[in-house]
Amino acid sequence: MAGALSHIRVLDLSRVLAGPWASQLLGDLGAEIIKIERPGSGDDTRAWGPPFLQDAEGQDTRDAAYFLCANRNKQSVTVDFTKPEGQALVRDLARQSDVVLENFKVGGLAQYGLDYESLAAINPRLIYCSITGFGQTGPYAERAGYDFLIQGMGGLMSITGRRDGEAGAGPQKVGVALTDVMTGLYASNAIMAALLHREKSGQGQYIDLALLDVQVASLANQTMNYLTTGRAPQRMGNAHPNIVPYQDFPTQDGAMILAVGNDSQFAKLAIVAGHPDWALMPEFATNRARVEHRAAFVEAFTAVSVTRTTKDWIAALEAAGVPCGPINTLAQVFADPQVQARDTRITLPHAAGVDVALVANPIRMSATPPEYRSAPPTLGQHTKAVLADTLGLDDAAIELLVAKGVV
After folding, report:
1. Is 180 marked active-site?
2. What is the β-pairing status of strands 99-102 and 127-132?
3. Residue pair 129/101 in contact by the 8 Å Cβ criterion
4. Matching InterPro entries, A to Z (predicted)?
5. Closest Cα to residue 14, out of 32, 30, 38?
6. Rounded CA gap, 328 and 336, in Å?
C-alpha cells in the first residue's frame, strides 16, 4: 500500500540535521521529498567526514556518513537560487508542493522571494515550516544557532555530566545532536498537524520552530522540578533526580544499569541482592525515602554489585522482573537479538554501486508502515528528472540552465 503521506510533496530547502531529519521522517511515511541543494557543494553534511561512504572500488565518495543518516527517500535537485532563474524554479516547485521546509537565518530567503509571504501568495494552501536557532522573534532572532550551542544555552548541559566534586565533573553535551533531532521530530509533528488542519480549512499556514524552544520544552521533568521548587537541578552523572535506584552500578567485570521504577520492583531487587530486609527498612522501603537516603543506598548496593558479573546480575534480575541491562557499544547494539528481531538495520542500493546500511524508522504501523524507496541521493542525482517530470521543462531548457550554472 502507498504510504500515509504519499499524496504529499515536500520542497525541502533545509540542510544539516534538524530540517533533513524532519523531511526524512515525512519521506519514510510516503511523502515525495524534493531536496534543493547548492550546485557543486550541496548540503553541508555531505562534507562532514570522515567517515565517507565508499564506492564499489573501496574509494571514498563525496558523501559523509553524517549525510546518510538523514537523507533517504529524497530526490536531490541542485538549484542556485541566488540567480533569478533559480528563484523562478524554486517558486514553480513551491506552487506544486504541499510543504516547504527551510532553516535559513531569519529573513534569509526574503531577498530571493522565497519567504512564506511570497510563496503563500502563489500557493495559499502551502504549509511553510521555518527552523532557526532562536525563532522568528525575540532579541536573539538574528543569531545563528547550532545544536551544541543550544544544549548549553537551553539548560541541558547544566544537568548532564558528573556531579560537582567528582573527578571529571563539569557540563557535558549529549553524544548526538539531540536538540536537532528533537526539533526535527517537533517539526514533522507540526507539519502533519497543519496538513490535517488544511483538510478542514483549505488554508496553509506558517510554522516557526526554534531549537532553543525545543530544548527547553524537552527537559521534561527537570524543567518541572525547577518550576515547582525554584531550585535548579544539578548534574548527577547517571543518577535520576526523582528515582532511586535508577543509574549505573559497577559489577565484577564492568557495569550495569538498574532502572527500578516502583517499590515492588525494589523489593524484588532486594531479594536478588540477598538483602530482603532493605525493602522493610524505613530509609529504603519507599522511593521517596530512597531519594532522601540516596547516598546510603548507593553505597550499600555497590558493595554487593561488585561481587557478581554483569551477565550474572542481568540473568538474575530479569528472571525476577527487575528492569536492568548492559551498557552496550554500537557493535553490541546491532548484534543484540532484540535489535535484530526488530529489523533495525536496513540496506538500500546506492548510486555509488554499493548497498548502504541505514537505521530503520522506529515507527511500526499496520496499514501504512514506513517505506524505504531510495538511499540518500548523490548531489543533483534527480535534477533533470524533476525539472522534466514535475516542471515540464524540455531537454533544451534544462541544458540552458546547466550552461548558466543555475542547476
Report:
1. yes
2. parallel
3. yes
4. CoA-transferase_III_domain, CoA-Trfase_fam_III, CoA-Trfase_III_dom3_sf, CoA-Trfase_III_dom_1_sf
5. 38
6. 9
pLDDT of residue 2: 87
Neighbours of 403 (CB within 10 A): 9
Contact (CB, 8 A) for 271 and 324 = no
Secondary structure of residue 248 in the 3-state scheme: strand
Task: Name the active-site residue from 180, 248, 263, 343.
Answer: 180
Residues of the chain with pLDDT under 50: none
Report the largest interatomic distance among the alpha carbons of the chain, rounded to a whole angstrom. Answer: 84
CATH superfamily of 9-218+362-403: Crotonobetainyl-coa:carnitine coa-transferase; domain 1 (3.40.50.10540)
CATH architecture entry for 246-333: 2-Layer Sandwich (3.30)
Parts of the chain belonging to CATH 3.30.1540.10:
246-333
Detail the DSSP E strand segments found in 310-389. 324-325, 345-349, 355-359
As a whole number of angstroms, the distance between CA 317 and CA 56 comes to 46
Enumerate the β-bridge partners of residue 246: 259
According to DSSP, the β-strands at 99-102 and 52-54 are unpaired
Q: Residues 6 or more apart from 333 whose CB is under 8 A from it?
A: 339
Exposed, middle or buried: residue 64 (CB in 10 Å: 0-12, 13-18, 19+)?
buried
The three cell numbers locating residue 47: 562534507
- Give helix 310-320 / helix 263-272 axis angle, nearest 10°: 130
Measure the CA–CA gap between 102 and 196, rounded to whole angstroms.
20
Instruction: Give the pLDDT of residue 156.
Output: 97
What is the pLDDT at residue 65?
A: 98
Torsion of CA 198, 205, 74, 181, to 10 degrees: -110
